[in-house]
Each structure stands twice: as structure tokens, then as C-alpha cells.
Amino acid sequence: MAQIKKQNKLGKDSRKISLRDFVWNGFNYTVTITFASSFGVLTATDHLGLNLIWIWVLMAIIAGTVAFAFAKLARQHNSKSNGAGYVYARTNMGRMTGLLVGFMQYVYIPFSITYQLVSMIKSSLGAGYINPIDGVYPWYVLNFGSFTYLYLDLIAIAIFVLCSLTIFGGIRFFKKMTNYSSFVKWGAFFFLFLLAVVLACMNGKSNMQYWSSDSSFTFGGFVGAFNSCFLAFAGFEVFSTAGKNIENPSKNISKGIILVMIISATFYILCTILFFLAFTDFSQNINMFAWARFMNDPKLKWLYYVGPIIMLIGILGLRVNSMTQKSFYAGTIVQPMSEEGFFPESFGVLSKKDNMSVKASFLNIVITLIVAFIWLIIPDIISGVRGATSQKDDIFRINDFQAMATVICIFVYIMAMISIVKLGFEGKMKITILEWIMYFVASAFLVFFFVMYYEELIRVNILNGDTTQKVRAFISIGFTLMCLIFFFIWYGVYYHVKQKMRSTQYQTKLDNNFKLDDDWFVVENFTNNKFTRINKIYANPRMSTSWKKKILNRLFNKTNLEIQSFQRRNLKIYANKHNANLLKSQILFKRLSTLKQQTISKI
Predict the structure, then answer these.
(1) How many C-beta neighbours within 10 Å does residue 492 have?
(2) Please, are residues 220 and 46 in contact by the beta-carbon 8 Å criterion?
(3) Handedness of CA 552, 554, 556, 559 (dihedral sign)
(4) How many helices and strands (H and E) does the chain possess?
């Protein structure tokens, strides 16, 4: 019997994503070493230099604030459903706004995959993306003529398809693929970190002195840094959508998001300092270019060949991991919108074995291939016909994909911030003064950079740019308009018509998934956790009596204040003294008083 229970427990766990799996996958999904490739633009063009360190800190604070908002929203919404940002917006701002947020969340997936296709092979190996060293191209540069970009992008697309198909192997296979690719990724990049540490020790303070003299701050450089680097923190809003596949989602999603953001911010800041200590040139892809210094060293020339090979293996591991996860999360975004009826209901059907939306994941493959064909293959063909040999001649550049993916993320984040601020004003969620300040500051930054993105497209590219810049700007703006037009037409012609034909009973059943969970369970869980801690401290034989009294009094006061705050919020919402939650709070007060008598008085 014990063996059967153990097998059942193991079987159940293997089909769910635990908190440990969630944090590990979230870290690997969010953190990519390719953030270092942005250093070229930011140091060579904008000369931000050491200013990048505090800019990373500022972006970590803004992204961390948004992540904290998502974590709080996860605890008071139906986190057992897939969707995350879609669920929060749908619950607090209505059906149309929620579906728009879900739709833009989904648009982000194929678009960010397209960005990764560019950065996987073309920007690492393609001629035109890599500058010659003393007039000689590094050995790993690939040049097949004017159609080089087309060939490299086709290889990247083929790798994407293979990664996406792994999702049909189920949750267990998905976890194995993400784990193995993560080990390959970090195993390879360990050598880059090791090289950076060795060079940093050899250089001492000289590199920091160099960067101090080459550091300047401009408003344009700051905006460029935000657009280039903020995407490095994005992703938590995507991997938090898999509520049906996560153990204890209301608790683990909120914990996981906070842990991932803390780890990610620490990683980026430390790596930035390390790279500044190690290198004085970021004008090229640092992952590959770092090994070029050994080209003319007879003893270490083997590193000139081995280093880029290891980096390429790491980049492939990174992209396999990210694309595998994106294929899974794309399904978790489409599935709840299909249940709602925005997409055909067949995409909302979950597999009996793993609760996975297989058809929705397959839809993501098809749409991503369409997006890649429009944004990569067609421009590659045009560039090939034109005889373009440099990334400057590309109709779309890697920074364009990066900026577009960033602005889509920012839109989703703004909607989440509106949701939590709305709940705070209505008294349905406890928000401290410090949280209010953090939310308004973060929201102001997000809105500012969202507006600045389109303002710069119009002012710099359309009004003052050359023909290529104007084409790129018109297509970027046109893409946004096309998404919005498609959404509203689809909403009116397809979804709204289906909604009118539904029975009231069925619509009510759907709407029940988007009711805000009362914060009673949050207060109750908080109080129960404090009660458990109080009992542990009371029973601790190693702690002195004086310390026990101090700690227990502090815990009792904190618990009492939390229950009082809960009462005030409910009075604000219902404006009467007879609602059920106030009666529940009285029960908590009695439990608190009884426990206090049983502990403090007996010490």
C-alpha cells in the first residue's frame, strides 16, 4: 500500500510543475547571456559606459515592481486557470480589455521567437553582422553571397520547428528538454564567465579607469538602453500563464515570480560589472568576439577556435530551451481564450494525460512560421536581390525586433498595473504607501517609454530618416495597427456573434472564472501562518523567556493589524457592519486573543 501511494505521489508530481521547476524554468526563460550583445550599441554608439550599471539597477526596480504586482494579483485571482495577465485584466477591466491583453500576450510569443531566430545564428555567424579584425574576418564567419541571411534564417526556423514539436511529448518530456538544454547553455557559458574572470584579474583597475573616461549620459542613450535591455527582464508574465500545470498556483506563481526577478536582476548587474572589468570593446557580439584576442597568440591560439564553438553550442542550448518553453506557454495563453470563445473551442481542449493544450501549441507553430516568413524570409529575399551584404542594409534589424517585443511587453505590464491600482482604489486589495509609490513610479516609466517608442519612430525615422528607415518605421507602426484592427474586427465579427448565441447559463459559468477571489483567504492564510509560527516559538526550548515575549508580542501585533486592515477594507467596499467577512474577522480576533492568553500568559 505504501509503495502504491508513493508511486501515485510521484506520478502526480511528475505531471505538475513544482515551485523549484517553476523558478528554474523561469530563470532560464528570462535570463539570456545574449543581453551582452546590446553592449555594442550602448557603449560604442551612445557611450553610456559605466552608466549601464545604475541603468540596470533602475530597470530591475521597475521590472521588479511589475513582477511584484503580478505576484499580488496571482494570489487574489483564479490562478488555477491559464492566462495570468489575461485573467487579471479580464477580471478587473471587462471582457474586451481582457481579451485584448490576452491577444497581445499571444502576439508577443511568435514575435519574440522571430527575434530569437535572428539572434541565434545570423547575428552570431553571418557576414555583415561581424566586423573584420585587422582586415580579416574571424574563421567562423559564414558568407554564401547576398542570400547568406536567407540560408541562415532557414536553418534557424528548422531548429525552431524541431524544438516546438517536443511539446507533444507531454509535461515529463518538456521538463527533460528544458533541463538538458539549460545544462548545455550554462555549461557552455561557464567558459565565457571564466575567461571574463581571468581577464578581469589580469586587468585590475585599468579597465574601470578606461570606462570611467568613456562614460557619458544622454537622454537618447538612456531611452536606447531601456528599449534594448528591458526585454532582458521580460518573460515572467508569460511563464506565469500555465496555472493548470503548476502545483498550488496561487502560492507558487507569486513566490516564483519574485524569486526569478531577484535572481535575474542580481545576475545581470554582476555580469555587467564583470564584463566592464574584463573587456574594453563591445562593438561586436561579445559571446563570439571575446575569443578573438587569442588569434595571434601562438600558445593560446586554440582558444580562438575552441571558444566560438563552445559559445555556439551554448547559444543553441539557450534557444532550444527558450523556444521549447515558448511553445508550451503559447498554448497556455490561447487555451483560456478559446474556452472564452475568442478562438475556436477546439484549441481550448486539454489533453487528459497532462492538461496541456496541444492544438493551441500547434497553432503557435503555424502562426510563428507565418510571422517569420513575413518578417524574415521576405526581407531576406529582398536583401538578396538587392545584393545587400551588411545588416545596415537589412529592412529589419535585430534592434527592431527587440524594440517591438519590448513595447508589446510594456503594454501588458501597463494593463497589469492599472488592474492592481484599480483594486487598491476600490479597497479590494491591501496596498501600502510604499507600494503605491512604487506602482505609480513604475507605471509612469512604462507609459513614458511606450509613448517614446512611437514618438521616436515618427520623429527620427519617418520625418528625418532615409528611405530604409522610413520603410522600417512604417512597417513597425503598421504592424501595431494591423494587430489592433484584426482584434477589433475578430471581436465584433466572430466572438461577439458567438457570445450573443450562448445561453445565459453557459455565459454565467464562463464569467465565474473571472470573479475576484475575496481577500479573506489571503488574510486567513496570513493569520494561520503566523499562528503556526507563534506555536513553534512558544514550544522552542532553546529560546530564552525574554526573547520569546518580545518576538511573540511583535507577531501578535502584526497579526492584529492585518485583521484590522481587512475589516477596514470590507467596510469600505460594503459600507455596512453586517457582511460575512466582518463576521469572519471577528472569529480570527477571538482565535488571536485565545492564543495570546495561552502563550504569553504561560511564559
Answers:
(1) 11
(2) yes
(3) negative
(4) 25, 0
- Spell out a b/e string for 323-339, using b for 16 or more CB atoms within 10 Å of the CB, else e: bbbbbbbbbbbbbbbbb
In this structure, are residues 30 and 236 in contact, taking their beta carbons and an 8 Å threshold? yes
CB hemisphere CA count around 193 (13 angstroms):
14
Asked whether the beta carbons of 317 and 182 are under 8 A apart, the reply is yes
Instruction: List the Cα angle 168/234/420 in 5-degree steps.
Output: 105
d(CA 73, CA 246): 16
Q: Which three cell numbers stand for residue 562?
A: 492585518
Return the number of other C-beta atoms located less than 10 Å from residue 409's C-beta.
Answer: 25
CA dihedral (473, 479, 482, 484) positive or negative: negative
Q: Which of 542, 556, 547, 548 is nearest to 588 (CA)?
A: 556
Mean pLDDT of 156-162: 87
Total-model pTM: 0.75
The C-alpha cell that represents 328 in the structure block: 508550451
Identify the residue whose cell numbers are 485565545: 594
Round to whole Å and give the CA distance between 230 and 218.
18
For residue range 107-148, what is the model confidence (pLDDT) as tens digits?
Answer: 877 777 877 777 778 877 877 777 777 777 888 888 887 788
Q: Is 127 helix (H, G, I), strand (E, B) or coil?
A: strand
* DSSP state letter for 78: -
pLDDT at 463 over 80: yes
Neighbours of 87 (CB within 10 A): 26
pLDDT digits (tens, 9 = 90+) for 535-547: 777 777 777 777 7
Asked whether the beta carbons of 32 and 188 are under 8 A apart, the reply is no
Report, as an integer, the average pLDDT of 248-267.
77
Alpha carbons 256 and 261: distance in angstroms, whole number: 9
Give the three cell numbers for residue 414: 501597463
- Alpha-carbon distance 13 to 19, whole Å? 11
Contact 287, 312 (CB under 8 A): no
CB-CB neighbours of 301 under 10 Å: 12
Of 270, 252, 248, 322, nearest to 36 by C-alpha is 270
Residue pair 357/327 in contact (Cβ under 8 Å)? The answer is: no
What's CA 416's distance to the chain center, in Å?
14
Cα gap 375→479, rounded to integer Å: 10
Residue 137 backbone phi and psi in degrees, to 5: -75, 145
Q: Which three cell numbers stand for residue 423?
A: 483594486
User: Cα 118 to chain center, whole Å?
Assistant: 19
Q: Which long-range contacts (CB under 8 A, 24 or more apart) does 345-354 make?
A: 350/244, 351/170, 353/15, 353/170, 354/15, 354/170, 354/171, 354/172, 354/245
Cell numbers 465584433 correspond to 492
Highest mean pLDDT among 321-330, 376-385, 576-585: 376-385
Amino acid present at 127: A
